[in-house]
Design a protein that fits this description.
The chain is α/β, with parallel strands linked by helices. The chain is built from nine helices and 19 strands. It is globular and about 65 Å long.
Length: 339
């Protein structure tokens, strides 16, 4: 069967005509399969939503309990047939509950990656390579300049700065879903045994992670206190909070930002970031290449990001490749990293 008969791009997103189903649609549709809970992929108003239980919980927490007409959860590896097409979800390693979507029909296998990473992350299931004929991938960091160090390396850099400047607070900007919780968990793994203080906008999703058994350490809300109370503290806030008077409640704060975009020094300078932390929940250039090879796919479709650069590399490797240029997908890291 031709891959386009299983999935093909439409203005609403990737569409499966046999199942009358869209993957990560950018506008309300009758039936949607959602790969993960970030707002550029998980929107309200669909008639029916298929996703992992964790993603459904995240959507309920962030959007509200009535985000869809009906919902159905799938465990990783569980298969469901809709209109003659068999769908299953497989770990993407991006955030809690994130999944790749596999669609099988007539002996052809098409995988939609959603957003993904290959680095270890204690807050979510690790990425699983799914062999396929067509691999539909993101390309957020698809340029050779983007090589991400380990999150442990960057968190130890943060801890070294805390030890060097004990009179100052270290305020870390991190996206509310996934990145903030990953920084919390990495701090635990690196031996930080003090409280971590979190902006109120981070608390609901953080509690949801904890309810799903993710160890994040002693997380406390930021409260009104003398500046000296937060000396040598680590504080997590939303990216936008770093640009507001909220930061002034902390003693001589060292402003930090956790994002793959911090690989670009100009980005850090534009935001006045004193300590850039290159921590990304997306695959870097090398891992994008590695994943494409590992899937064994002969055809690569690219949804968003540096699509043309990745397509050029694929063609040099003898693979069919095309950039879909789907409108509506962004980069949750870029919301806070762009000047």
């Amino acid at each position: 069967m031709q891959p386009a008969q299983i999935l093909h791009p439409r203005p609403e997103g990737l569409y499966c005509p046999k199942a009358d189903l869209y993957v990560d649609p950018t506008r309300p549709v009758a039936r949607a399969l959602i790969t993960h809970g970030h707002s550029d992929h998980a929107r309200a108003g669909h008639g029916a939503v298929l996703a992992t239980a964790e993603t459904l919980a995240i959507m309920g927490a962030r959007i509200g309990p009535d985000f869809a007409g009906s919902t159905q959860s799938l465990r990783y590896g569980e298969r469901v047939e809709i209109g003659g097409v068999t769908f299953s979800l497989h770990p993407a390693g991006h955030v809690l509950g994130s999944a790749q979507a596999l669609a099988e029909c007539g002996g052809t296998r098409v995988v939609v990656s959603g957003d993904y990473k290959r680095q270890p992350d204690p807050t979510c299931a690790p990425f699983e390579v799914v062999p396929c004929d067509v691999f539909i991938t993101e390309a957020t960091f698809a340029l050779p300049v983007f090589t991400h160090p380990s999150a442990e390396h960057e968190v130890r850099k943060l801890l070294a700065s805390v030890a060097m400047f004990p009179e100052r607070a270290h305020v870390v900007g991190a996206y509310a879903l996934g990145k903030a919780q990953r920084v919390m968990a990495e701090l635990v793994r690196c031996g930080w045994d003090k409280p971590v203080y979190a902006h109120g906008a981070l608390l609901e999703v953080t509690k949801l992670y904890q309810a799903h058994g993710v160890e994040l350490g002693d997380i406390r809300p930021v409260e009104t206190a003398p500046k000296s109370f937060y000396a040598d503290a680590i504080v997590l806030g939303t990216p936008s909070a770093l640009q507001t008077p909220w930061v002034r409640r902390f003693p001589d704060p060292v402003t930090c930002f956790a994002s793959g975009w911090m690989r670009i020094r100009a980005r850090a300078r534009q935001r006045g970031v004193e300590l850039p932390l290159v921590i990304s929940d997306h695959a870097d250039w090398c891992d994008l290449q590695r994943t494409i090879v590992d899937t064994g796919a002969g055809e690569i479709w690219i949804t968003h990001g540096e699509a043309d650069a990745l397509a050029h590399w694929c063609e040099g490797e003898g693979l069919k490749a095309k950039a879909l240029h789907l409108v509506g997908y962004g980069d949750e890291e870029n919301e806070g990293a762009a000047a």
